[in-house]
Amino acid sequence: MSLSAEDFEIEQAEQTVRVSIVLMLDLSLSMPMRDNFLPAKKVAMALHSLISTQYPRDFMGLVGFSEVGRVLTAEQLPEVSWDFVYGTNMQHGFQLSRRMLARESGTKQIIMITDGEPTAHINRWGEPEFHYPPVRETVDATLLEVARCTREDIRINTFMLDPDPGLQRFVEDLTSLNRGRAFFTSPENLGDYVLVDFLEQRRRLLEGRR
């Protein structure tokens, strides 16, 4: 089953909550090589459509990450493609997402869609540094940024596509530190997981305010 924003019938209610989300989309070479990129981009577009049409008070930002992270606009999303470089720089992606959410209000969340463990980070000279297999320096730099997100009350939910053992171990550390959630899914079921989870969390927030 595959879902899109048009598949949801929204019960109209007084909007007493605001949700601010940044979706981090993995643009590394492994995504198209494993046939994960197109389903992930479709989910990003569907989530943006759902939020912009049904929850206009909410905020949704977009960050793509490969060797480095970069902020994307909604207008760029239909044409965005993977990067022909090596590296999965979650650290820089989290940093850009955190800075974006610092300007927003409400419940804050990062949704990360990826299929690989962190293999790049920004080093002390401000340059991207790639290592495969991942080195401790990259993992530590990434978890440091996770800790900063945690201190700023930003939850990180990770959707893993075809995860390898290295990614699973890293995400276990991430969720333990951040208290976010992790989902093991497939390209075919990714949309079901992301969109339904967003609506379910929003419903719980609304019920909590009543």
Number of helical regions: 6
Helix content: 40-55%
CATH homologous superfamily placement: von Willebrand factor, type A domain
Number of strands: 8
Q: The biggest beta sheet, please?
A: 6 strands, mixed
User: What general outline do the C-alpha atoms trace?
Assistant: globular
CATH topology: Rossmann fold
CATH class bucket: Alpha Beta
Low-confidence stretches: 10-14
Output the radius of gyration. Answer: 16 Å
How far is it from the N-terminal to the C-terminal residue, by CA?
33 Å
Order of helices and strands: EHHEEHEEEHEHEH
The side-by-side strand order for the widest beta sheet comes to 3-2-1-4-7-8
- Share of residues in strands: 15-25%
Total tally of structural domains: 1
**What is the annotated CATH architecture?**
3-Layer(aba) Sandwich
Structural class given helices, strands, pairing?
Answer: alpha/beta
Mean pLDDT, all residues:
91
Account of the 3D structure:
- The protein is of the alpha/beta class and 210 residues long.
- The chain has a single domain, classed as von Willebrand factor, type A domain (Rossmann fold), CATH 3.40.50.410.
- Helices cover 40% and strands 21% of the residues.
- It contains 6 helices and 8 strands.
Topology:
Layout: E1 19-26, H1 30-33, H2 37-54, E2 59-65, E3 69-72, H3 90-101, E4 107-114, E5 120-122, E6 128-130, H4 136-151, E7 154-161, H5 165-178, E8 182-185, H6 190-209
Parallel strand pairs: 1-2, 1-4, 4-7, 7-8
Antiparallel strand pairs: 2-3, 5-6
Helix pairs in contact: 2-6, 3-4, 4-5
